[in-house]
Specification:
Number of strands of chain B: 4
Number of helices of chain B: 2
CATH architecture of chain B: Alpha-Beta Complex
Strand content of chain A: 5-15%
Low-confidence stretches of chain B: none
Number of domains of chain A: 5
Mean pLDDT of chain B: 91
Oligomer: heterodimer
Strand order of the largest sheet of chain A: 9-15-14-17-8-16
Helix content of chain A: 25-40%
Strand content of chain B: 25-35%
Radius of gyration of chain B: 13 Å
Order of helices and strands of chain B: EHEHEE
Number of helices of chain A: 27
Structural class of chain B: alpha+beta
Distance between the termini of chain A: 80 Å
Shape of chain B: globular
Distance between the termini of chain B: 29 Å
Low-confidence stretches of chain A: none
Shape of chain A: globular
CATH topology of the largest domain in chain A: Barwin-like endoglucanases
Mean pLDDT of chain A: 90
Largest sheet of chain A: 6 strands, mixed
Chain lengths: ~900, ~80
């Protein structure tokens, strides 16, 4: 059987239905009658739960059904003859609906023949277009259960009540499974079709079990503990229970036991069969193991995150992978990942021995498993795997010949996949090339943190070593970091400078700095630049100097032309462009930064216009080179000046404090005035708002403006040279609002966008008058974080802060689930060569991808400027 | 109550029933069967408005953020 080549077959269709008792018996290898498993010698008992007719799991034994050994025999079903029928829990819903929709006497569907025909017609139409008929069938059930008297035998229909988990009451009297089964048996085939069932494949009475299939032993293998004791699978335990009760039931019935005992046993049998299928049915206590742990029965094996579908089929554990903490590697390329030696020594890549590589591979094998670029395993041409040890490494290296495969350890330049969960977009898994480094963390260039959404506060990441040449090629072409700098989400760069990169280049390129040749070479020494351009001037000592803009220009590609407003741009009404007083208009001509300051808008992740242009005009290689050199240059630059942040950065002069206080008092007075006019009923409500809403809105607005104003004051007095301001303005970290809150005024605390109103009756805290609408009674924090909050302010701040925490916690779980649903719904859609978007059935979803058929990473968001640029670059001169 | 057309609302795009020949050219353009088109129900307010019947194909001309104007075709079903 093992050597028969597989016959290629195409699955034409799959049919789902109910399994009939007849079929259960037909496919059964043996009936199971004893609850015992093994005899005293440890051999499976015939017609017991471990009968070798059900397949074998112990090595050495042969299956009595197919004579296969353990591993060859797929296992075979057996069956248990139930003494009395029981309900299958999974079909409770259908059973209930069907009981209500059929006559209690003649079992016919409670609808007029014409109505039945009408439903049948509609069903065939729905099936014709391939839709789900669920809604229509529910309609059938609804209509039929409304009928009071049977249209065929005029029998009055009684109310059927369903009681969890498996009881049906008709006018308060219990219906036994036998009775239900009798009713279902009598439903004519035509009526079954009306409720959407196919009588050939699914007779309703099959939902009541008379025989129970016993899954093969291969499905419920027992394990032998170290002590030699056997431990049975949960399913086996459950089956033992079922057989025991079944036997007792039979004995009692044959002995003519009283009805009460019979009923009790029947219920017990029902309980065991129910929990065998699903041990989490509400309304019954879950069946437990002796230790008190709930049993894992059939439905538990399939359901949920760790179930068969999500846990074993959609996702599983893999080999050739590694996981550890990440930390920054500022000197690595964005395409690289630093791999700790201990990991590189465990992960391997298979290499076939050829004439070209045999000498190199011999070196690896000779190195063995302990010396780094070594080899862990060798496969001979006959497929035998040999572990490379210190004992046999010399020997193996000698014997190495063409056609063998060496599993060599990971070394520099190998392509691997690198991933951080949650993998929310395609940039969460990218291909890096390995750089083996000492110590125990993965290292990555900080510029690739944004696509992974990683930081270094303890994040861990996974790495997968690719095993075939094809996979490595595919990964390198499609998944390498440099191919993913531009995000298809918004067509811009997702990889770029962060934090220090931005402030570093900001400090370097700002003003006309004088940089000596020594410093200039130092700044550029990690780049490909080996010569400086013409110096910018001679300083008072007669030494030539260069400007920061010149230094930065050295890492720009030669033919780059670009003009844009920097992040520091204050958005004046009319842009003075080249004459910008803040040096916020960036002009790059022929790879020279002529004016403007480099900041987030130029090189930042998500925003950097320079990466964007380089990749779109020159290519990913140049883009990756630029990001590499930019990160290195910026770190050199920030090390020259240094940038540190301290509490003194929030200091503002006394005058500023007085001004801020004035603004706040003014605002408070304005609020009091508003309240007064509100109380005097002089206030006009805003359109579409009540008076109460109007006063709240105007107060919020007044106070919001006041806070902004205080921020403005603080901003002016802090100047542009404070590190905090430099970071906020350049976009490196923090915002002006953060600075305002630290230095000037924290502002209004809000819950659900409203001022704080909760607390005691009519007031927020007992420190205030009832009905006080004033600013301080409803969470306006006048103080700054630096000056410190008053007790009431502190309390309001905690209220607002708590809402923020709850919000993020709720949002992440909700958006995670939304994402899962979206991904499940959209995962099979595909852009075809004709640019249509279709699903797997070929049904169109979009007639042109994105309605314009354009890949956002290739588009330049056509602006008039684009045409100018193209024309002038073609004509090689400026065009008006 | 004054009667008004649904199509007059600014957020309702232009809907029109396609002629047999138009439909044919669209189907051949994408080399598909009618059933592979996206669907719209007859009960849909717009279908009632333009009097589309089951089996008709409705051409929708939408404003598009990316392409200015985009055509869409939907098969009317029950």
């Amino acid at each position: 059987m093992a050597n028969v080549p597989p016959i290629p077959k195409r699955i034409a269709s799959i049919k789902f239905g109910l399994i009939s008792p007849k079929e259960i018996r037909k496919m059964s290898a043996t009936p199971i009658i004893t609850a015992d498993t093994y005899d005293d010698d440890g051999f499976p008992i015939d017609m017991g739960l471990m009968d070798t007719k059900l397949g074998v799991i112990d090595p050495g034994l042969r299956c009595k059904t197919c004579s296969g050994r353990a591993g060859e025999c797929p296992g075979h079903f057996g069956h248990i003859e139930l003494v009395a029928p029981v309900i299958h829990v999974g079909f409770n819903k259908v059973i209930r609906k069907l009981l209500r929709a059929t006559c209690k006497k003649c079992s016919r569907l409670l609808l007029e023949p014409a109505q039945k025909q009408q439903f049948l017609d509609q069903l065939s139409v729905i099936e014709g277009i391939g839709h789900m008929p669920d809604d229509l069938i529910n309609e059938v059930y609804k209509e039929a259960s409304k009928v009071k008297n049977c249209p065929y035998c005029n029998e009055e229909q009684l109310e059927i009540k369903f009681e969890k988990p498996t009881e049906y009451l008709e006018n308060g009297e219990k219906l036994t499974p036998t009775e239900i089964r009798d009713r279902f048996e009598n439903i004519p085939d035509e009526d079954i079709r009306v409720v959407g069932m196919d009588p050939k494949n699914a007779r309703p009475e099959w939902m009541i079990l008379t025989a129970l299939p016993v899954p093969p032993v291969t499905v419920r293998p027992s394990i032998t503990l170290e002590s030699g004791q056997r431990s049975e699978d949960d399913l086996t335990h459950k089956l033992v229970d079922i057989i025991r009760i079944n036997q007792r039931f039979q004995e009692n019935r044959e002995a003519g036991a009283p009805q009460l005992i019979i009923e009790d046993l029947w219920e017990l049998l029902q309980y065991h069969v129910t929990t065998f299928f699903d041990n989490s049915v509400s309304g019954i206590p879950p069946a437990r193991h002796r230790s008190g742990r709930p049993l894992k029965t059939l439905s538990q094996r399939l359901k949920g995150k760790e179930g068969r579908f999500r846990g074993s089929l959609s996702g599983k554990r893999v080999n050739f992978s590694a996981r550890t903490v990440i930390s920054p590697g500022p000197n690595l390329s964005i395409n690289e990942v630093g791999v700790p030696i201990p990991i590189a020594q465990i992960l391997t890549v298979p290499v076939t021995v050829t004439t070209r590589n045999i000498e190199q591979l011999k070196v690896y094998v000779r190195n063995g498993e302990d010396i780094h670029p070594g080899a862990n395993y060798v496969f001979r041409s006959d497929g035998r795997r040999i572990k490379v040890t210190n004992m046999n490494k010399e020997d193996l290296a000698e014997k190495l010949e063409h056609g063998w495969i060496v599993e060599r350890q990971l070394k520099d330049g190998d392509t691997v996949l690198f991933n951080r969960q949650p993998s929310l977009h395609k940039m969460s898994i990218m291909a890096h090339s390995v750089k083996v480094l000492p110590n125990k963390t993965f290292r990555l260039n900080p510029a690739v943190c944004p696509p992974y959404n990683a930081d270094f506060d303890g994040d861990e990441m996974n790495m997968h070593a690719l095993q075939t040449e094809e996979s490595r090629a595919e990964a390198k072409i499609l998944m390498q970091v440099q191919e993913n700098i531009l995000s298809p989400r918004f067509g811009g760069p997702i990889i770029g400078g962060v934090h220090d990169h931005i402030s570093g280049l900001f400090l370097l390129t700002r003003y006309e700095k004088h940089i000596s040749s020594y410093d200039a070479y130092d700044l550029l020494r990690k780049s490909h630049v080996r010569a400086l351009p013409e110096h910018a001037g001679i300083d008072e000592n007669g030494n030539p100097y260069w400007t920061g803009k010149q230094i930065f220009s050295q890492i720009l590609p030669e033919d780059l032309n670009l003009e844009f407003s920097a992040q520091v741009c204050s958005h004046c009404d009319t842009c003075k462009k080249e004459e910008c007083p803040n040096d916020a208009y960036v002009v790059i001509r022929n790879g020279k930064l002529l004016m403007g300051t480099i900041d987030e808008a130029a090189i930042g992740a998500f925003k950097g216009k320079i990466q964007d242009r380089i990749i779109k005009e020159i290519g990913p290689d140049a883009g990756a080179l630029f990001v590499d050199e930019m990160t290195k240059l910026s770190i050199r630059a920030i090390m020259r000046t240094g940038l540190s942040f301290g509490i003194a950065d929030e200091d503002i002069p006394k005058e500023a404090k007085i001004q801020i206080n004035e603004v706040l008092t003014e605002a408070e007075d304005a609020v009091q005035n508003l309240i007064k006019s509100y109380k005097n009923k002089e206030l006009d409500p805003l359109p579409g708002r009540t008076l109460d809403e109007t006063i709240e809105m105007s107060i919020m607005q007044k106070l919001g403006k006041a806070r902004d104003k205080t921020g403005g004051i603080a901003d002016i007095h802090m100047g542009l040279e404070t590190p905090a301001v430099i970071m906020a303005r350049s976009g490196a970290r923090g915002s002006i609002l953060n600075l305002t809150q630290m230095a000037a005024c924290v502002g209004q605390q809000a819950v659900r966008g409203e001022r704080i109103r909760r607390g005691y009756a009519g007031r927020t805290l007992s420190h205030f008058q009832k009905g006080d609408l004033g600013s301080d009674a409803h969470g306006f924090v006048k103080a700054s974080y630096k000056s410190g909050l008053s007790p009431t302010e502190y309390f309001f701040h905690a209220i607002g802060g708590r809402e923020g925490l709850v919000d993020t916690a709720v949002r992440t779980s909700q958006s995670g689930y939304l994402q899962r649903r979206l991904v499940n719904a959209l995962q099979d859609l595909e852009v075809q060569y004709d640019l249509t978007v279709r699903d797997t059935r070929g049904v169109l979803v979009q007639f042109k991808y994105g309605e314009d058929g354009i890949d956002p990473t290739k588009s330049v968001f056509s602006k008039p400027d684009t045409i100018h640029r193209i024309v002038s670059s073609v004509l090689n001169k400026e065009v008006a | 109550m004054t009667k008004f057309s649904l199509l007059d609302h600014e957020s309702v795009p232009k809907h029109e029933i396609m002629s047999e020949s138009e439909l044919k050219s669209v189907l051949s353009k994408y080399s598909i069967e009618k059933e592979q088109l996206p669907k719209i129900k007859v009960q849909d307010a717009v279908c009632k408005e333009i009097g589309a019947a089951v089996g008709d194909v409705v051409k929708i001309t939408r404003k598009s953020q990316t392409a200015g104007e985009a055509d869409y075709y939907r098969l009317v079903i029950e």
